Amino acid sequence: NNNHYYLLILVYLHFLPKEATETSSSVYVASVLVALFSNFEKGQYLPLNHPKQMAHPSMLLHRPLASLPSSAFFFLPATLALFTTLFILFYIFTTPSLFISHQHKHNLKYPLGPSQSSPLTPILPSNGSFHLSAKFPFNDVFGGEDGTVSPVSSRSHFGSKGNSMNDIDVFRDGDIFLEDYQQMNRSFKIYVYPHRRDDPFAHVFLPVDFEPGGNYASESYFKKALMNSHFITEDPRKADLFFLPFSIARLRHDRRVGGGGIQSFIRDYISNISTKYPYWNRTGGADHFYVACHSIGRSAMAKAEDVKLNAIQIVCSSSYFLPGYVAHKDASLPQVWPRTDDPPTTTSERKKLAFFAGAINSPVREKLVKFWRNDSEIYAHFGRLKTPYADELLGSKFCLHVKGFEVNTARIADSLYYGCVPIILANYYDLPFADILNWKSFSIAVVTVDIPLLKKILRGITSDEYSSLRGNVLKG
């Protein structure tokens, strides 16, 4: 079932002024330790298929417990807990988990006979900065006129901990992505639960009739673009997915609901559609999705557990440490700041090594200012800037995206817009479109424990590597 992947592509198409990356974490070895300690203890605990066990099955029921010292009953679980804890801590602090890409590749080849539907159709609303042509520049991205990719030799590591450059392709699988897009464009359909304009909460369910703005504009842009696209069907029998059209951001600012009433509102809404329509109960909500960019969305489903566990959540807060986010089921939404002015000239001279400006509202930012506040090459500002923010971005080689109260901000989008290579300082964070975009080709991820080594890492990037990174940034 490729519906989830098609949805990911759909979200990607709405936000081609990009942002994004990858993450993956696992404590698999801890479970291995459990198995080892369970099956063996000084040769007395044998695997079930061991010859001695098979020859004497009664051994499974009659262990010589009396022969074990009493301290063993405390020592074994205590030792197991200690080793497991030490391993997890070692893993977290030494593994650059942000650099591990998902191995969830979609390599299905679809029959691409003559299309019976309309040609590739732009699905974005008309807007100066949100433009998607009906024809993707795949030749420009992938090299030759035939869309093939020239072989690239393995590149060296960036600094001591930075991501390694094994290729320079912006897309992970460009040819497969194009095939999937064409297949999706022909047949993928979404049913939106209907609401009338005289509905008391019409502003929550219907797309806005103005150009969205502010930190949470991504949420409104997605709904507005989707509702005007050819992916919408009024026949739920033809639908691949079902869209829950409520807006968390607009609920947050509705005085009748507010932040404290969102959980009950969502619970009642799911109860209503599951009673009125058969589609939710058919799958338990697994073929339903909603979009939320406001940070309060992380707890909005607390009273609607089925939504959190089963439905696809497209959210800006895609941190593995958030209880509401389920990696590999949910998708990361890029947070963008709407712009209507002309794109800036990105060929300006960049004299600063790195730049960041923002409030000190997290331990990560506190650590950054502790080490680099007075540095002459890394400009870490935590107050009012004397120069325009845009000028600082245009004058810096690297722009820092540092986790604050939440990991989601528009800084990655800002970096790409102003031609600055993003440096991402946020552990265990799913970057948007990680299955589609090769983030290593246009950004650098640094684990937060390596903040003291930040200058060494950035200085270790060769001029050729920087040119490759920035060239891919400018392709956006």
TrEMBL record:
InterPro entries (alphabetical): Exostosin, Exostosin_GT47
Alphabetic keyword roster: Glycosyltransferase, Golgi apparatus, Membrane, Signal, Signal-anchor, Transferase, Transmembrane, Transmembrane helix
Membrane topology, record value: Single-pass type II membrane protein
Location of the protein in the cell: Golgi apparatus membrane
Primary location class: Golgi
Signal sequence annotation: 1-20
Pfam families in UniProt: Exostosin_GT47
Domain Exostosin GT47: 185-460
Source organism, top-level taxon: Eukaryota
Transmembrane parts of this sequence: 72-93
Assigned GO CC terms: Golgi membrane
GO molecular function, one term: glycosyltransferase activity
Record-stated family: Belongs to the glycosyltransferase 47 family.
UniProt protein name: Exostosin GT47 domain-containing protein
